[in-house]
Design goal:
The chain has 403 residues and is α+β, with helices and mostly antiparallel strands. The chain contains 20 helices and 11 strands. It has 4 domains: 133 residues, 2-Layer Sandwich (Beta Polymerase, domain 2), CATH 3.30.460.10; 103 residues, Hydrophobic Seed Protein (Orthogonal Bundle), CATH 1.10.110.30; 97 residues, Methane Monooxygenase Hydroxylase, Chain G, domain 1; 57 residues, Serum Albumin, Chain A, Domain 1 (Orthogonal Bundle). Helix content is 52%, strand content 10%. It has a 7-stranded mixed beta sheet with strand order 3-4-5-2-1-8-9. It has a two-stranded antiparallel sheet with strand order 6-7. It has a two-stranded parallel ribbon with strand order 10-11. It binds adenosine-5'-triphosphate and magnesium ion.
C-alpha cells in the first residue's frame, strides 16, 4: 500500500509514461516510506528531458533546468521532477562539472549519495533497489553508493549529509563510510556555506542531534564549519547538552553560549553561517536575555521588555544549562499574562498628550518620560488610563520643572 502523497502523484507518473518515458518516485520519500515515516513531498525522476516534460505538462516552473529539474504543477500540487542524470567529472570536490542527462534509471540511482537514498519506486509500489538500500534501511545503516573515498571526494557535503541523516533517522554510519570521514573532511573547506547550513540546521533538529554534533567534533569535520575551528571542547560540551525540547533558535543560542562568544563575535559567527538578518537579530536577543537571566530572576519589567516568546526561549536554554536551578517557565507565562500592558503601543498616553499637558517642545525628555510612565504602569504604580496618568504626573510633580 502506498501512501496518500504517492497516490496523488500517480497520475503524474502515468502521464509521463503514456508519452513513452519512464518515471519513478525516488529519494527521501521512498526511503521514508520504507521506514514507515510520514512523508511530506515526493520527488520524481524520469527519463524525459526537461523540454519533453514541458510538452507533457502545461504548467511548469524552471527551478534548475541545467540540472534537469523542473517543477510541474498538477491538480493544485507541485512536483519536483528531475531527469535521470549522471554526474561525471568532479574537479573541485563540490559540484559536478557537467551534468549529463541519461535514459537509465540505474545510472541515476548510482550517482545518489547513500544506498538508502538510491531506491526507486514505480507507480504500482514496486521497488527498484540495485544497491541494497532496503537492507541498509532495515539494518539502520548509512552506506555510500560505491566507494566512500570516491563519493566524498566528488562531493564533500555528503559527509555532512551522513551526519544529518544519523541525527534525523537515528541510523549509524557504516564503518568504511565512517573511516573515510577522517581522511576527507578537509574537503569540506570547498563547500558553499549555504549548503552546510542547511545540513547543520537539519542535524540540530533531529532526535539524535546530540550524537551527531559529537561526531562532528570527534571526526574533525567541525574544523571546516564556520566559526568552529578552535572550538572542539565547546562543541563536545554543547553536544552533551542539546536536549530534544529545544527549538532550533534555542539550540543556536545554546551554542553561542557554549562558544563563549560576546558582542561583535556573535554577529560575526552567525553571519559566517549566512543566517538571515532577521534570524540573527532574534538569536542575539534571546542570547542577551539568557545572560541577564543568569544574573537575575525574571520580573515584570524584564518580561515586558523581552516579550513572552524571547523570555520563554531564553528560560529554556537557561534550564538546559543549569538543570539544578529551578525553572521559572510557569511563572513567566503567569507574570506576563498579568502585565497591564504588553507593548508600548498599548500605553494610553502618547508623546502628543505629554507635549500638550506640559506645554513643551519635543526633545529627549519626551522619551524619558514615556519610559517612566511605561515603567510605572508595568509595576502597577499607576493604572493605564489617561486621566489617572495625568493625575499621577501632576501629583508626583515631576516633569514640569525638569529643564
Ligand atoms: P529529506 O527528507 O531531508 O528531503 P532527501 O533524502 O530527500 O531528504 P534531499 O536533499 O531532498 O534529501 O535530496 C533528494 C535526493 O537527492 C537524495 O535522497 C539523494 O538521492 C539525492 N542527493 C541529494 N544530495 C545529494 C548529494 N550531495 N550527492 C548525491 N546525491 C544527492
Ligand atoms: Mg527531499
Amino acid at each position: 500500500m502506498i501512501g496518500k502523497p504517492f497516490m496523488e502523484a500517480v497520475p503524474v507518473l502515468e502521464l509521463i509514461e503514456r508519452s513513452g518515458f519512464e518515471a519513478y518516485f525516488v529519494g527521501g520519500s521512498v526511503r521514508d516510506h520504507i521506514l514507515g515515516r510520514e512523508i511530506a513531498d515526493v520527488d520524481i525522476a524520469t527519463s524525459a528531458l526537461p523540454e519533453e516534460l514541458k510538452r507533457i505538462f502545461s504548467k511548469t516552473t524552471d527551478v534548475g533546468v541545467e540540472h534537469g529539474t523542473i517543477l510541474v504543477h498538477f491538480k493544485g500540487a507541485s512536483y519536483e521532477i528531475t531527469t535521470f542524470r549522471s554526474e561525471a567529472e568532479y574537479s573541485d570536490f563540490r559540484r559536478p562539472d557537467k551534468v549529463s542527462f541519461i535514459r537509465s534509471l540505474r545510472e541515476d540511482l548510482q550517482r545518489r549519495d547513500f544506498t538508502m537514498n538510491a531506491i526507486a519506486m514505480d507507480k504500482d509500489g514496486e521497488i527498484i533497489d540495485p544497491f541494497a538500500g532496503k537492507d541498509a534501511i532495515h539494518s539502520k545503516q548509512i552506506v555510500t553508493v560505491g566507494n566512500p573515498d570516491e563519493r566524498f571526494g566528488e562531493d564533500a557535503l555528503r559527509m555532512l549529509r551522513a551526519v544529518r541523516f544519523l541525527s534525523q533517522l537515528s541510523f549509524s554510519i557504516e564503518d568504511k563510510t565512517l573511516k573515510s570521514f577522517q581522511q576527507h573532511c578537509r574537503l569540506l573547506e570547498n563547500i558553499a556555506v549555504e549548503r552546510k547550513t542547511v545540513e547543520f540546521e537539519k542535524m540540530l533538529q533531529g532526535p539524535d542531534r546530540s550524537k551527531a554534533v559529537k561526531l562532528l567534533a570527534t571526526s574533525g569535520m567541525f574544523q571546516y564549519l564556520p566559526g568552529l575551528k578552535q572550538h572542539q571542547e565547546s562543541l563536545i560540551r554543547f553536544s552533551s547538552q542539546i536536549s530534544e525540547n529545544l527549538e532550533l533558535a534555542e539550540t543556536w543560542v545554546l551554542l553561542l553560549y557554549e562558544l563563549g562568544l560576546a558582542g561583535k563575535e556573535i554577529e560575526d559567527f552567525l553571519r559566517a553561517w549566512k543566517l538571515p538578518v532577521q534570524k540573527i537579530k532574534k538569536l542575539k536577543q534571546i542570547h542577551s536575555w539568557l545572560l541577564l537571566r543568569i544574573d537575575a530572576q525574571w520580573n515584570e519589567e524584564s518580561l515586558y521588555k523581552a516579550g513572552l516568546e524571547n523570555a520563554i526561549s531564553s528560560e529554556k536554554v537557561y534550564k538546559t544549562l543549569f538543570p539544578e536551578k529551578s525553572s521559572m517557565i510557569g511563572q513567566i507565562t503567569q507574570i506576563h499574562e498579568q502585565l497591564p500592558i504588553k507593548h508600548r503601543q498599548e500605553l494610553k498616553v502618547t508623546g502628543n498628550d505629554l507635549m500638550a499637558w506640559l506645554d513643551r517642545n519635543p526633545g529627549p525628555w519626551l522619551r524619558e518620560l514615556l519610559e517612566e510612565i511605561e515603567k510605572a504602569v508595568i509595576h502597577g504604580i499607576v493604572q493605564n488610563e489617561k486621566e489617572k496618568i495625568k493625575a499621577w504626573l501632576n501629583g508626583s510633580n515631576l516633569k514640569s520643572e525638569k529643564n
